[in-house]
Amino acid sequence: MVICLVCYNIADRLPVIRYYKDLKAQALSEEENEKGSLSGAYWRSTLWDIFGRIKWLGFGIVLIYIVTLSIFPGYITEDVHSMVLKD
């Protein structure tokens, strides 16, 4: 973890990373000037648009999680005997 933190701080100082961070900051400031700040109603509509795009992906992940939790404990506690391993 320490190596990752050190590498992240080193990468942050690279010229290419600085260039793209500045480019992103410039694009964000231009977009804010163009649209203004995000008001409450606009923010909620944007949030609902994002939720509408990812709802089926989230449903799939939840379904996989539920199926895994329903199968895994039974599989682990199953009484399996092996003549080769003598258990």
From TrEMBL:
Main location: membrane
GO cellular component terms, semicolon-separated: plasma membrane
Top-level taxon of origin: Eukaryota
Pfam families: Nucleoside_tran (PF01733)
MF term (GO), any: nucleoside transmembrane transporter activity
Keywords, alphabetical: Membrane, Transmembrane, Transmembrane helix, Transport
Signal peptide (from-to): none
Membrane topology listed for this record: Multi-pass membrane protein
Residue spans crossing the bilayer: 56-76
Family classification: Belongs to the SLC29A/ENT transporter (TC 2.A.57) family.
The name this protein goes by in its record: Equilibrative nucleotide transporter 1
Lineage: Eukaryota, Viridiplantae, Streptophyta, Embryophyta, Tracheophyta
